[in-house]
Amino acid sequence: MVSPSANTRHFTLPIILVLVVSLLCLAWQFINKKKLININAISLTIGMLWAWHIYIKVSVMPIKDLNFLIIALLAILFIGSISFINNIQAFIASCLPATVMILWLDQGANWPRVLYSIVLPGIGITIQHIIQQRNDNFTRRLMDKLLEEKETLNDLSMLDPLTGLYNRRGFRNRLDTILALGNGKHYVLLLDIDHFKAYNDNYGHSMGDQALTHVSAVIRDAVRSRDVVTRYGGEEFMVLLTDIDAERALQTAERIRQRVYDLKIPHMFTEDVATNVTVSIGIAPLEQQDIEDALLKADSALYRAKRQGRNSILASEMHLAT
Ligand SMILES: Nc1nc2c(ncn2[C@@H]2O[C@H](COP(=O)(O)OP(=O)(O)OP(=O)(O)O)[C@@H](O)[C@H]2O)c(=O)[nH]1
Question: Which of 39, 72, 83, 142 lies most in the core, judged by the most C-beta atoms within 10 Å?
Answer without folding.
Answer: 72
